[in-house]
Amino acid sequence: MIQQEFFVNNMKCAGCAQQVKSKLQAVPNLEILQLDLANKTILLQFDPQTLSLKDFNQALADTHFSLVKSSTH
Fold first, then answer.
1. Order of strands, edge to edge, in the sheet holding 66-69?
2. How far is 45 from 51, CA to CA, in rounded Å?
3. Domain spans of the chain?
4. What is the pLDDT along the chain (73 residues), one digit of tens a residue?
5. Domain 2-69 fold
């Protein structure tokens, strides 16, 4: 398991944050450790052998949000 921070594109309000969290909670074997609305980041814990950024963005496909790797981690 690794922990990785991602930037959440288009997350602007608490409702946005809740929608992102809800969609990602549906991904098996993915744990949301922290969601930071002010910095528009999310810290996730997952097994990189079974999950990737592609999987996370696929879970968000029917929203206007997407994740990109954070430059800070």
1. 31-36, 41-46, 2-9, 66-69
2. 10
3. 2-69
4. 999 999 999 999 999 999 999 999 999 999 999 999 999 999 999 999 999 999 999 999 999 999 999 865 4
5. Alpha-Beta Plaits (3.30.70)
Largest Cα–Cα separation, the chain: 32
Question: Tokens 């992102």 belong to which residue?
Answer: 20
Among 43, 48, 1, 50, CA closest to 24: 43
d(CA 63, CA 35): 17
Query: pTM score, two decimals?
Result: 0.90
The residue with tokens 């002010």 is: 38
